[in-house]
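Entry 12.
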Amino acid sequence: MRVMTFNIQHCHAWNEGRINIPLFAKTIRRLRADVCGLNEVRGKGPIGGYTDQVGKIKRRLWYRGVFGEAIKVRGTSPYGNAIVSRKKIREWEVIHISDECARGESSHFEHRAVLRTVIRENKKDITFLVCHMGLSVAERRCAVKTICDILDCTDTPVILMGDFNTTPDAEELCPIYERMSDTDALAEDPGAPTFASYEPKTKIDYIFYRGLKCTSVQTVPEVVSDHFPIIADFEV
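Predicted 3D structure (tokens):
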């Protein structure tokens, strides 16, 4: 099973300077992702450019998919995380991160959420968590606490992925490292930067796992979004 994490920056094609949903669907297909977690996804709303991006991507791929709203931009237009999958999505929910203590820590504060799905592969249920963490340490600590609460009451294999907006040595990520393995440990080039794609400097995107065997991982150095995607293969 091939898993991919990709911050798609609302399907904004970096080299073209415009939204190009077919390009992002083509990238997922070309990289042969069975399950792909997406960050910075728009839903349908009255603001220009806010369309059902997940619906358009999954129809082009003939995949299943769900959108997990984190916020409404200007109070009207949905924005959040998503997942598209070859396999049936058995259940899903949006878990909002309690972040009252983090408000005011960053001038770019944004409410965040975790998209939890359960997908069956080879008669085994696997829980997938897709998260886009905040820009401040306090926001990320709130996100990590929410994720760890989910992990501690989950008895299936788990894959956690997304844009964490911080580097692997960040102290606030320690509780995740204590509970899960980082696919990056298997990379030929550990710590390879994922952002910014047009001028790679730092790793802020991840795929963690528990209860599965990861056989390979690769950061794909292609400028589609402003982030590089990561793909990881698992035995199930």
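Annotation: The CA atoms of residues 101 and 138 lie 7 Å apart. DSSP finds four helices and 14 strands in the chain.
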